[in-house]
Design a protein that fits this description.
4-stranded antiparallel sheet; alpha+beta; 11% strand; 5-stranded antiparallel sheet; globular
Amino acid sequence: MTAEIGQFALILALVLAGVQTLVPMIGAWRLDPAMMAVGRTAALLQLLFIVVAFVSLGACYVTNDFSVALVAEHSNISQPLIYRIGATWGSHEGSMLLWVLIVALYGGAVAIFGGSLRESLQARVLAVQGLIGAAFLGFLLFTSNPFTRLSPIPLDGAELNPVLQDPGLVFHPPVLYTGYVGLSIAFSFGVAALIEGRVDAGWARWVRPWVLVAWIFLTVGIAMGSLWAYYTLGWGGWWFWDPVENASLMPWLLATALLHSSLVLERRGALVSWTILLAILAFSLSLVGTFLVRSGVLTSVHAFALDARRGVYILGIIAAMTGSSLALFAWRAPVLRTGSLFAPLSREYAITINNLFLLAATATVFLGTFYPVFMDVLHGDKISVGPPYYKFTFVPIFILLFVLVSFGPVLNWKRDEMRRLLPRLRWPAGLAAVTLVVAAAVFGIAHLFAALGLALGVWLIVGAFIVLARRWRIGQVSRSDMFGLVRSTPLAVWGLVIAHAGLGVTTVGITAVSAWQTNKVLSMSPGQSVKLAGNTITMVALRPVNGPNYEANQAQFDVVGAFGRSTLTSERRMYPSSQTTTTDAGIGVGILGNIYISVADQNPDGGLTVRMWNHPFVDWIWAGCLLMAFGGAVSLADRSLRVAKVERVVVRPLAAAAEPVIP
């Protein structure tokens, strides 16, 4: 009965999504408050019914209801409860249910917290969000029903993919989807503004918090996915340029550009067309990622489905949504004005240049991801694009971007002067130059690019804090006046500094682990020792162990180094139900780097094949990502960002070809 409740709830949600799409859109056209209010009610009811469906599917997993085909395919009686819960979104159908739940959550949030929006704009945003929900609810019900019954009912299930039986499954997909799918709200705001014919500073103030929420979750989600792959797959890497990894990176790049361009629109009334276009493209790339995972066009550890029919359905959604929104944009673009003019040396111009670099980086990743697909479709050639391509295309773009990042926050709005700009950056430039020289001298000319990477990290970190130093007027005012400036510093400024510093921390981590990691592969037996990066690693024990639903060979290692002694445990696991083997790595975490040990199957001589790495500063990669997300959260806590000051914005319709007037 639980499955039938979930099925019925999804049908009702689809009906409500249709109501949410049509009624408020018509109401906004007629300026009918009652019809526009229907959109808010429909959004909340749709969210309620999708929650019911989601809980119903989860209950089927928890109770091992193997009469539901999805549960029988991805669960097992011996599977721990936490992974049965995680299996709710560990399959194609379950993850699509999570997908529509996130869309509905954002729609419900706009209905509840969008009281400061113009009523007509709120109605249109909810209508577009309802259309997205309706499209994917239809996809879920007609091609990927999670509640399909199975007959005869098996006594036991086939088990969730053992690689997914990890705490990462419980947290990573919901967090990633909250950001990945959350960009739908930026799309809805953009399309609603084009339909309404009003794009202004007030619109930018309303949309930025929603985009910021999605960006924060997407940042954390990507970092969690990287960390999960690092410790689970046993490859000793943190990023593999997998097509589906790229599919989450591309929306993140455009969402970053969107955040900055919406700031220019809010503060200066400029970059109107560009901001709307970014809102459309960012979500379109999220849809492209959904297509990649579920179409069967690629084979990936992340791929959910290999059914081409589902891919055609999603491709139709992408074509319809992206095509119609771009057509609407093309219709409105001629009457969109760029707003206030600004000089080539200004904060607006710096943000524009940074956005162009982010767009170029996105295009590079898009080409590397889809070129093999195009070649396969056109010529039947099976090729792959690996790290060397990105090393010679993506990395140079980001090096130039990182050089420019620290300029924007210290530039004045509208216009600035070079003679005043350069002294503001003397400390970041000086410390970065010292870092470059020292690193090149210590590590040699062969590691010149690594020294450059460290210098870039220092440039970004110090450049971020220069924003505070300039605001506090250190050395220019009395101590009491400076403390007053410190106390009055807006949270949004603190957020900017933390996020940019986090980018620098990540840069240092990526540089160090890429340039100086070392590894060894050898056969070891208990009692044998090996040297790695100044550490002595000894295998002290090898024994069989039994988990809740697996059997394992467990190897214990004693690690002795300059910073003390630690014990690491690595396992090679066998899951009898699916006859699948996985590796659980032993990782010694330190602020200066990790010792990473993974074991393979036992050799005929009784020893184990052991792979071990020294990863200097690798944890700085994820620490920097968390700092970036934390910076976004601090900015979001700034009430001036979350509250739209509509009374200060005089809005004129685009049809009159007028720009917003900000008194």
